[in-house]
TrEMBL record:
Keyword Signal: yes
Signal peptide: 1-23
Keywords: Signal
Protein name: Phosphatidylinositol 4-kinase alpha
Family: Belongs to the PI3/PI4-kinase family. Type III PI4K subfamily.
One Pfam family cited in the UniProt record for this chain: PI4K_N
Domain annotation PI4-kinase N-terminal: ranges: 394-678, 682-1036
Superkingdom field: Eukaryota
């Protein structure tokens, strides 16, 4: 069975790929389209004959529909649409080949599949081609009406025909036409197996529309079916087939088929009617109101009277019918009398208990709330009554019980940010079970309640803010008078807090709502201490994230300090109950805080709190006489790492920050080192290490910031770990840790022995930070030179930094070797080599030596850099610029000079002393010669070509040191010509240079390169002028250019033809 299913899937996928390819072809002949049509069901020869429909034919229809949509009916679209409409009209006379039982249960019977997919294709064509919309809508409604009429006449037909053909056809066509244009487009992509949006649907979305006659026709059709006796007996008919054997065993509709059909048609009518913008007859609205009232009465009665006997599936469809009826009732209520009647009807239904279906009824309650809000906004005299209705729901036992159940389920979010999607209307009616979590049920009602309160208050403020002030004051009074010992009252208060937070988040600075609400929260917070405090903290964070209010942000930071235990242990007992809510709030802020500057400030505040927590953890470890290792305090400290990482990921990197910021990050990295968070292997969760990596990406360099000789004292005074608490064992452990992280050597051992505890930790912090930064991106390696050039790092610290640089460079080489060779990785290596070439001429000798070692290592592992055009040009250009610093009139008054190259961010500071300048240029020239000689040995052809091109490209009539060196290298390579290579040295020495050298080849090569380069440049100029200039209208100068081109082009017609140009005018 699976093998057969794979064949079906392959057949459909292959046809869809063919359809997508054909849709992109310009001037497509009909014969190509017939390849798709050949896989579709053939149309009947006459109106009396039938068409055979099956799975494989459906795959062809879907592919043809995909072709039509993606090509926007550009290629034989009229023919394709004509075929699809004829196929739709032939559905009533179709002969169906039923699919297997497994396929029917998974996808539905073939009738529903065909009607749904064909109808969806036509709906999408109508949405993207408005000129065909009315014709398609009329055809869909005609076929739907035919099947509805057959259902009304079903007493004279067999049960199998009703349940296997008529009802599935109605369900499929209804599913195809319902929903929004976006939902239909998404469903179309799903049936075509598309991940993205079809090309034909990429423009402005236009929903296919129904005119007034279509809407009246659809309404009458739905009323006939839903009010018929056949609908009442449909469930028993289907159940009889289920109890039988054979064909009836494959019916996929396990719940009440009557409710399934009823729900399908009512929701279809709701979607079409409520999206109508055309004026309708007043009688239509009045009749629709009466119908909706009857639907609601019947649905409520069924839920209430037979709840114990009804299944969840049946109740779900009844609730969907009630929701659709509510939407239509609100939409159809036009005059004041109807609006008032509808308002009171909905208000009375809001808090009705429905026994065990309270969870499933949640989306219906949300729909009712939205209906009440819509009516209140339309008729502002109802606003006070609407606000009272909201308060009744807030204070009711129903909402408090739902909230308690949601909290008990363990899936409740700390802050509600959006309405849950689990209640969205299903596109299929083949339900075998319905399960909705209690958390989602409460969140659906609570979020909608907050939204409608906000909408209603906004409408109320149009006439003044008195109504809003009174409503907020009543909620604030209820909040402040809540008994902290009454669990039920606390649940109600938490619901009030969530509503107030929702309103303040959406109102923002309007009418001073944020200050009013946060003031209410401040009066209740810790007065007295209760579980309500955690919810207040969460909503304050929500307001801060959505409004960026600075005062609210300050309050959140203050509460963070209190909850995480900023000072005395007594505060832990008083504020410890808001620890977890505060952690959740910080996580929320890290994700949703929109203001960039506030994110940076919160990150720094959180880092400071991390440091304070570290001090407390250190004190705890000292009191138990333990060493600086991971303890239980480390775990509470590590819980802040994901929050810090979340904030760091959403801020820009800290480049050139003030000294205060560097000190904060330096202390942070000290604790990460001491507690072991910066190590990949350890007892802590792997997520903490990834969080530290995320912080490393944005962390500033831990430079001395000009501290110079006072850096050691600054480390002692400003670091969180006080010197008095450090023992000799701690010092030895820090030194050993530094040695273990670097390559051991005698020099390093002697160096580390002289380092203090604070210096060791500082160096380890730099090593771990830059290692983590390098792990995230190899492009970060050049930052190491910032430490080497830091004038505040002297003596032993600088030597240790040099060892760290060696270690990091080895790691860089390993990571680059592990990468796949691409243009990007090659460019990165060339960029690093250019940097090393500049650092080779650094004014500090140790940095110069280090750069020389790095150059040797990188060309040893990536030898192609030796003959890299970019690297060779940079070396020769820099050599020339450095040589220019030697040519001054007064050698004794030379000043320091900064040498740069165009389009490169690097620079070289030339020494002030004349002798040192001479040495710099001499050493660099020797090093360039060595590199070029090595390149000539390994890749002579490529290197010679690059050097020749460099000599040709330099346009200078004066001396150029780079050209001279390149010419000398070429001359050395050419040495003797072929005639003299094998002549004995004694004879060769007696011959003149012009006889034995190979300089003629050099001159010839340069001449040919220059000649052909000029020809190509001329042809490129000719091509640009021919494309944009014509003789006689661009001035005398361009006319002369044009005449010159006429003389030039005929001699080069063959070359121009090869470039796709022509010399004909």
């Amino acid at each position: 069975m699976s093998w057969f299913g794979n064949i079906r899937t392959f057949h459909a996928s292959a046809l869809n790929l063919l359809a997508g390819s054909l849709a992109k072809c310009p001037d497509l002949p009909w014969e190509k389209v017939q390849r798709l049509v050949a896989h579709c069901p053939p149309l009947p020869d006459s109106s009396s004959s039938s068409v055979v429909l099956h799975d494989r034919g459906l795959s062809g229809v879907v592919a043809l529909g995909l072709f039509a949509v993606e090509s926007e009916l550009a290629h034989h679209g009229v023919k394709v649409l004509h075929y699809l409409l004829q196929l739709l009209e032939s559905l009533p006379r179709a002969s169906w080949v039923q699919n297997t039982l497994a396929s029917a249960k998974r996808e539905g019977v073939i009738v529903e599949q065909f009607c749904y997919k064909l109808g969806l294709i036509l709906s999408q064509i109508a949405a993207t081609n408005p000129s065909h919309s009315s014709k398609i809508v009329k055809a869909l409604l005609d076929v739907l009406q035919w099947f509805c009429d057959q259902f009304i006449k079903s007493l004279s037909t067999t049960p199998e025909e009703v349940c296997y053909e008529t009802v599935p056809a109605i369900l499929g066509l209804a599913r195809a036409m319902k929903g929004t244009a976006e939902c239909r487009a998404k469903a179309f992509r799903e049936i075509c197996g598309l991940e993205g949006e079809p090309e034909g649907g990429g423009g402005e979305e236009i929903s296919f529309t129904f005119d007034t006659g279509d809407i009246i026709k659809l309404k009458n059709m739905v009323l006939r079916v839903t009010g018929s006796q056949q609908l009442k007996h449909l469930t028993s008919t289907a159940e009889g087939l289920h109890e039988g054997a054979g064909q009836g065993a494959g019916l996929p509709y396990r719940s009440s088929l009557s409710q399934v059909l009823h729900c399908s048609l009512v929701t279809l009518l709701r979607d079409i009617v409520t999206s109508c913008t055309l004026p309708l007859d007043p009688g239509f609205y009045h009749q629709l109101v009466k119908v909706c009232e009857l639907e609601m009465e019947g649905g409520v009665r069924e839920l209430g009277s037979s709840a114990s006997a009804s299944s969840n599936e049946r109740a779900f469809h009844v609730i969907c019918i009630l929701s659709a009826a509510t939407d239509m009732l609100v939409w159809a209520s036009r005059n004041d009398t109807e609006i008032d009647s509808t308002f009171h009807r909905l208000s009375s239904l809001l808090t009705v208990h429905t026994s065990r279906f309270n969870v499933l009824v949640s989306p219906l309650r949300a729909t009712i709330l939205e209906g009440i809000s819509s009516l209140a906004v339309r008729s502002q005299t109802l606003i006070p009554a609407a606000l009272n209705t909201y308060k009744d729901l807030l204070y009711s036992s129903l909402l408090a019980r739902m909230y308690s159940d949601a909290v008990a389920s363990g899936n409740m979010e700390s802050v509600l940010t959006a309405r849950p999607t689990s209640f969205q209307m299903l596109t299929s009616y083949r339900l075998t079970s319905v399960h909705v979590s209690r958390a989602d049920a409460f969140a659906c009602v609570q979020w909608t309640l907050g939204q409608v309160v906000y909408s209603t208050l906004q409408a109320a403020c149009e006439g003044g803010r008195e109504v809003m002030d009174g409503f907020l004051a009543s909620l604030g009074n209820k909040l402040y008078t809540t008994d902290a010992n009454d669990n039920f009252a606390l649940r109600t208060a938490e619901c009030i807090v969530m509503v107030l937070g929702h309103v303040a988040s959406h109102m923002g600075s309007k009418f001073n709502v944020v200050a009013t609400v946060t003031g209410m929260f401040g009066q209740r917070l810790f007065h007295p201490t209760s579980s309500l405090d955690g919810k207040l903290v969460g909503e304050l964070a929500r307001i801060a994230a959505h409004t960026a209010d600075p005062e609210t942000m300050e309050e959140v930071v203050r509460l963070m300090s209190l909850s995480l235990g900023e000072s005395s242990p007594n505060k832990e007992k008083k504020y410890g109950h808001i620890y977890q809510p505060m952690m959740d709030s910080l996580t929320f802020l890290a994700r949703y805080l929109g203001d960039g500057e506030q994110r940076r400030e919160l990150l720094l505040k959180t880092l400071q709190q991390f440091i304070q927590q570290g001090i407390m953890a250190k004190k705890a470890s000292d009191s138990t006489q333990s060493t600086h290792k991971a303890t239980s305090s480390s775990f509470s400290l590590g819980l802040l790492l994901p929050i810090i990482a979340g904030l760091a990921e959403r801020v820009e990197p800290f480049t050139d920050p003030p000294k205060k910021v560097i000190v904060i990050f330096r202390d942070f990295w000290l604790y990460c080192v001491v507690m072991g968070f910066s190590e990949s292997a350890g007892v802590f969760p792997a997520g903490w290490y990834r969080s530290v990596q995320a912080v490393a990406r944005k962390s500033p360099l831990l430079l001395s910031m000009g501290a110079g000789q006072f850096l050691d004292k600054e480390l002692e005074l400003n670091r969180p770990l006080r010197i008095e608490s450090i023992g000799q064992g701690d010092v030895q452990e820090a030194r050993q840790s530094l040695l273990d992280g670097l390559d051991r050597s005698l020099e390093l051992d002697r160096l580390v022995v002289r380092l203090s505890f604070s210096q060791c930790l500082y160096l380890i912090s730099i090593h771990r930070l830059e290692t983590l930064r390098l792990e995230t991106s190899t492009k970060n390696f050049p930052l190491v030179f910032n430490y080497l050039e830091d004038k505040g790092l002297q003596g032993e610290l600088w030597v240790a930094i040099e060892k760290i640089a060696h270690k990091l460079f080895d790691q860089y080489i390993e990571q680059m070797q592990a990468k796949t060779a691409t243009e990007e990785s090659a460019a990165e290596l060339e960029s690093l080599t250019e940097l090393l070439v500049f650092k080779f001429n650094h004014i500090r000798g140790r940095i110069k030596q280090l750069a020389d070692k790095f150059i040797s290592k990188v060309v040893d592992k990536f030898s192609h850099l030796l003959w890299s055009r970019r690297v060779v040009y940079t070396m020769l250009d820099l050599l020339h610029q450095l040589s220019l610093s030697l040519h001054t009139m007064d050698p004794d008054r030379r000043r320091s000079l900064v040498v740069t190259l165009p389009d490169l961010p690097h620079s070289v500071t030339v020494p002030e002393n004349a002798t040192k300048r001479e040495k710099t240029v001499s050493y660099f020239a020797q090093r360039v010669e060595q590199i070029l000689e090595l390149a000539m040995r390994w890749s002579p052809r490529e290197t010679t070509s690059i050097l020749l091109e460099y000599v040709r490209s330099v346009a200078s009539s004066a001396h150029h040191s780079g050209v001279s060196l390149a010419t000398a290298q070429i001359n050395n390579y050419f040495d003797l010509n072929p005639h003299n290579k094998h002549v004995p040295p004694v004879v060769s020495e007696s011959r003149p240079s012009c006889v034995k050298d190979h300089l003629s080849l050099l001159s010839s090569s340069l001449h040919r390169r220059t000649h052909h380069s000029g020809e190509v440049a001329g042809m490129m100029t000719a091509a640009s002028i021919m494309a944009g200039v014509s003789p006689g209208n661009e001035g005398r100068e361009k006319q002369e250019t044009w005449l010159n081109l006429q003389l030039y082009l005929p001699r080069n017609s063959e070359m121009l033809s090869g470039m796709g140009l022509t010399t004909s005018w």
